[in-house]
Amino acid sequence: MRIITATHVKYYHVCHRKLWLFDRDLWMEHTSEAVQGGELLHQTAYPQRAERYREISLGGSKIDFYDPHRRVVHEIKSSQKLEESHVAQLKYYLWLLEEAGVEGPTAILEYPKQRQTLHVSLTADDRTAIQQWLTGIRQLQAEEAPCPPTINKPFCRQCSYYDFCYVGE
Ligand code: SF4
Predict the structure, then answer these.
(1) To 5 degrees, how large is the angle CA 103–CA 109–CA 111?
(2) Packed helices 124-141 and 16-23: angle between N→C axes, nearest 10 degrees
(3) Cβ-contact 105, 97 below 8 angstroms
(4) Which residues pair with 58 in a beta bridge?
């Protein structure tokens, strides 16, 4: 069975085609200016943070900022446009932490450019929904699963697969 990471969960909520391509190692994020900008934001938004928080790896996913004393995950994003997928990513982190035996982890989603924060926790409904996400992701990972169609959303222009998806249009 192929691994499922928080990136799979995030892409599942953005675009199934993006997830399908990513899962098959057609990985183009390193060429994306948006992703490079996001990495820079991670490095510069809270320079003191590296001293206070831990980077941890769980089930193939990497949490950049985890406060082990308060059991809080911090996630920094540059734009609220895809907030639903950001929340899903964080809920998956919390689920992974619970699976690893951490009791009652919570998360804070931060948009420093907009000066917005959002507190995220895991409910019983979320745990059920995560099982459904995992089933949906496994279906897209199946060898016979066809590449999903393009979705023609405004945010496609910021996607690293844009040229791949719309070349010739
Ligand atoms: S460009 Fe649009 S359709 Fe293509 S993978 Fe990205 S989000 Fe999906």
Answers:
(1) 165
(2) 60
(3) yes
(4) 61
Provide the β-strand partners of residue 10. Answer: none
With a Cβ cut-off of 6 Å, ligand 1 is lined by 15, 17-18, 150-151, 156, 159, 161-162, 165
Find the helix or strand (DSSP H, E) in which 65 lies: strand 61-67
pLDDT at 52: 73
Distance of CA 71 from the midpoint of ligand 1 (Å) = 34
Give every residue of the chain whose pLDDT is below 50, as ranges: none
What's the 137 CA to ligand 1 centre distance in angstroms?
16
For ligand 1, what atom is nearest to the CA of residue 14? 7
pLDDT of residue 28: 66
Q: Candidates 7, 11, 17, 19: which one to mutate for ligand 1, based on the most atoms within 8 Å of Cβ? A: 17
Name the residue with the closest Cα to ligand 1, atom 4.
165
Q: Which amino acid is at 150?
A: T
| Per-residue confidence (pLDDT) for residue 59, from 0 to 100 | 85
**Whole-model pTM?**
0.87
Say whether 124 sits in a helix, a strand or coil: helix
pLDDT at site 25: 84
Q: What is the CA radius of gyration of the chain?
A: 16
* pLDDT (0 to 100) of residue 2: 86
